[in-house]
Structure formats: structure tokens, C-alpha cells
């Protein structure tokens, strides 16, 4: 886990937040932020740099899958919680400590909340994909949506290619919203809503599993939806042994 904190001299008092989620904020440099993100990730680093340039006081924690929740963040209170590709589920009591908003940047559109969003889009043969900013609640990817940025999925696009383009669109959405805050604009309120409950880790793992009784087309869809460089993909279990599917 990587932890960092920045602070700048305050140039005024923090404005009272009569509307927690939608108040114009002409002086974000007066606000304090808890930033949670993915360690060793270039897009998270870019988002963190933008956050530090936008707000006056930023405390950041970067982690990987399986890292424990940072104990230094347990007693945080301030104005914003910003989650960008974070590997942690933010405790509900901490979300309540954000006086203005607690927002997450999700690498998928409202049709694909939760784990494995790009995988399920490839599996479904989606013709359109997107990224979402939303308010965080106790349930994953279920809070009110701030903004969605959509883009078409190219014919024959692989999981890796879609992942890469998704990262570009997500940072674009992030930087656009930060520019709006600097300009004194409030967070927008999208009319879109989540299309389904969040996909779970168990559902994603089930997508990886294939068996000989499946139709050839179904096996091909699962292999294509889980093939990613240096990551485990589809597998077959026989006689208590697991065999990873190798593709050429």
C-alpha cells in the first residue's frame, strides 16, 4: 500500500454544504480530499496528479487486490472521497464523513456494474460501452450517477483492446469533471440509472469456467471474454485437475 498526504495553506474557510451532493464549489482549493486508487497504475497516477492540482489538501492511498484497508484512513473526515480504480470497498461510515460528496469512477457503463465489467461486455457482444462516475453508497456500483461517457465497441475488438480504450475514456471523464469543479460548476446529475445489480466475483469466476458439454460457440465466447495478457483466463476441470485454456 502507498500512502501520501499533501497540504497547502488555506485561502478561506470551507463553505457550508447545504446540499451534500450538488452544490457549486468555486474554491475547490479550500477542500480536503481522501483519494483511493490502484497502485502502480499510470492512469491512477494521472488522476491523483489532477486531484492534487485541483484541491488544496489531498490524502492518498494506493493499493492492490488483497491489500488490507489502510488503517490511517479510518479516522479521516473532510470534504470529498474520490475512488479511482480503487481495490477497496469504502466503509459506509467513512462515506458519511465526506461533507460534499463521495464519488467513484467505474470503468464500465450503467449496464455493467461490478466486477468483470469489460469481460461481460465482450461476452455479450456489446456494441457500445462506456465509463461512469457515481456517488458511492454501502452497496457497490449502485449510487446516483453523476455522468456517463459512452463509445462504440469496434468489430472484433479484444478484451485487452477494450480495456485500454476504457482507461483512456475514464481518465478523460475524470479530468473533465475536475475542470468543471475548478470553473465553479457543481457535479452534474445524470438521468441514467444502473441497469442491474453489480456483477460479483463469483459470477466472474463462473464466466471463466468451461466444460465439454457446452456448445462450441459458448466456449469460444467465454475464452474470448476472459483472454487477457498475463492474467488467468478460461479453464477446464477434469478429474480434480484444472487446465487453463491456451490460445494461439
Which residues sit in consecutive blocks of at least 5 with pLDDT less than 50? 9-18
Structural class: alpha/beta
Report the sheet with the most strands, covering strand number, pairing sense and barrel closure.
Answer: 7 strands, mixed
Tally of helical segments: 6
- Name the CATH class of the largest domain: Alpha Beta
| Order of neighbouring strands in the sheet with most strands | 1-3-2-4-5-6-7
Average pLDDT for all residues: 91
Q: How many structural domains?
A: 2
- Cα radius of gyration in angstroms: 20 Å
Global geometry: globular
Distance separating the two termini: 36 Å
Helix-strand pattern? EEHEEHEHEEHHEHEE
Amino acid at each position: 500500500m502507498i500512502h501520501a498526504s499533501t497540504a497547502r495553506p488555506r485561502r478561506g474557510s470551507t463553505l457550508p454544504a447545504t446540499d451534500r451532493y450538488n452544490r457549486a464549489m468555486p474554491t475547490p482549493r479550500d477542500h480536503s480530499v481522501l483519494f483511493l486508487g490502484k497502485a502502480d497504475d499510470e492512469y491512477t497516477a494521472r488522476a491523483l496528479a489532477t486531484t492534487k492540482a485541483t484541491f488544496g489538501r489531498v490524502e492518498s492511498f494506493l493499493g492492490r487486490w488483497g491489500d488490507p484497508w489502510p488503517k490511517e484512513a479510518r479516522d479521516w473526515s473532510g470534504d470529498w472521497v474520490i475512488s479511482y480504480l480503487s481495490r477497496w470497498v469504502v466503509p459506509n461510515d467513512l462515506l458519511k464523513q465526506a461533507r460534499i460528496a463521495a464519488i467513484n469512477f467505474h470503468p464500465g457503463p450503467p449496464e455493467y456494474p461490478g466486477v468483470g465489467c469489460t469481460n461481460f461486455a465482450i461476452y455479450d457482444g456489446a456494441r457500445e460501452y462506456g465509463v461512469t462516475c457515481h456517488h458511492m453508497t454501502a452497496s457497490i456500483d449502485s449510487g446516483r450517477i453523476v455522468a456517463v461517457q459512452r463509445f462504440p465497441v469496434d468489430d472484433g475488438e479484444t478484451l485487452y483492446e477494450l480495456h485500454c480504450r476504457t482507461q483512456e475514456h475514464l481518465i478523460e471523464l475524470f479530468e473533465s469533471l475536475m475542470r468543471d469543479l475548478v470553473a465553479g460548476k457543481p457535479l452534474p446529475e445524470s438521468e441514467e440509472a444502473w441497469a442491474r445489480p453489480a456483477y460479483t466475483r463469483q459470477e466472474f469466476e463462473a464466466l471463466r469456467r468451461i466444460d465439454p458439454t457446452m456448445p462450441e460457440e459458448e466456449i469460444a465466447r467465454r475464452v474470448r471474454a476472459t483472454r487477457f495478457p498475463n492474467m488467468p483466463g478460461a479453464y477446464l476441470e477434469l478429474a480434480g485437475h484444472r487446465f487453463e485454456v491456451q490460445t494461439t
